[in-house]
Design brief:
The chain is an alpha+beta fold and 74 residues long. The chain has a domain at 5-53. Helices cover 38% and strands 15% of the residues. It is built from three helices and three strands. It has helices at residues 8-15, 19-28, 44-53; strands spanning 5-7, 34-36, 39-43. Helix 1 packs across helix 2. The longest helix has 10 residues, at 19-28. It starts with a strand and ends in a 21-residue tail after the last helix. The relative contact order is 0.18.
Length: 74
């Protein structure tokens, strides 16, 4: 019955991301999922589509200024 639905931990291992990241994507609507009890169920097709378009970004975006190693040393 639920063969096409996977849990957040399974999705995390498929996408090589942390399970909390998957939960956050579900809450934000980046992944279409259904909240069931205290977890998320995600259609496998959604994971496949997401994996083909997801570009990983970490940290805050760059502010456009070059890092100067001499600042604050003087």
């Amino acid at each position: 019955m639920f063969d096409h639905l996977i849990t957040t931990s399974d999705a995390a291992s498929m996408l090589q991301l942390h399970p909390e990241t998957i939960k956050r994507f579900c809450r934000l609507g980046k992944l279409k999922a259904d909240k069931v009890n205290n977890g998320w169920l995600i259609p496998k097709e959604e994971i496949d589509a997401f994996a083909s378009t997801y570009k990983e970004t970490r940290g805050r975006p760059a502010n456009g200024r070059a890092q100067d190693s001499e600042v604050g040393l003087g």
